[in-house]
Design brief:
This protein is mainly alpha-helical. It has one domain. It is about 55% helix and about 5% strand. The chain has 8 helices and 2 strands. A two-stranded antiparallel sheet has the order 1-2.
């Protein structure tokens, strides 16, 4: 799958419009989104062709899908979660994949890696190592976006409890983290064609 330039632009505009719904936190969220701009608009959601949304614009497309699935889950189960928290948790759960304030996280992989391993993008070795959730949290704090505790944990724990450092939170995580984690998993399966 790939997106047309028009679809990439539409997704970025939708992503940005959702940040306008964050009340008094809209200004720092928009400052962050606008600063990341084209880098955010074009960022893939993964680096390998057999993963999900490994194409330009994949991250924004994925994040918007995660929000849609999170809203459907919340409605289906009657979970009451503030809309601004759902927006922040879902849109920014993988924000660290964009990179840091200036450098891209994903860079084009060498041709042999693309052909032999299906790795279209690789991690930028010229930037400080951080896992994706930590880098996303760094970006939020850098731009002054104040997170509630459950929003911070939704971003931190979005890779689930298979990640060793997340295990202590298992069955102790806030509802928002559960919603984002579940919506992320469902969205990834949809993008890989495993779910409708």
């Amino acid at each position: 799958m790939s997106l047309t330039p028009e679809e990439i632009e539409a997704n970025f505009n939708k992503f940005r419009a959702l940040c306008e719904k964050l009340g008094d936190r809209s200004a720092p969220a928009l400052a962050m989104v606008d600063h990341l701009g084209e880098r955010l608009a074009l960022c893939p959601a993964s680096g390998k062709s057999n993963y999900h949304n490994c194409f330009p614009g994949g991250l924004a497309d994925h994040s918007i899908r995660v929000l849609g699935n999170a809203m459907r889950l919340s409605k289906a189960f009657g979970w009451e979660v503030p809309k601004d928290s759902l927006i922040i948790g879902c849109l920014f759960h993988d924000l660290g994949k964009v990179g840091d304030v200036e450098k891209d996280y994903y860079v084009d992989a060498e041709e042999w890696r693309q052909q032999k391993m299906g790795e279209l993008y690789t991690y930028n070795k010229d930037m400080q190592y951080m896992d994706v959730p930590t880098r996303g949290l760094f970006l939020c704090q850098h731009f002054g976006l104040k997170l509630k505790m459950d929003e911070l944990l939704a971003i931190k724990l979005n890779d689930g409890f298979v990640v060793v450092e997340n295990k202590p939170y298992c069955l102790k995580e806030p509802m928002l983290a559960t919603i984002v984690l579940t919506a992320d998993y469902i969205s990834t399966m949809q993008e890989k064609g495993s779910l409708p």
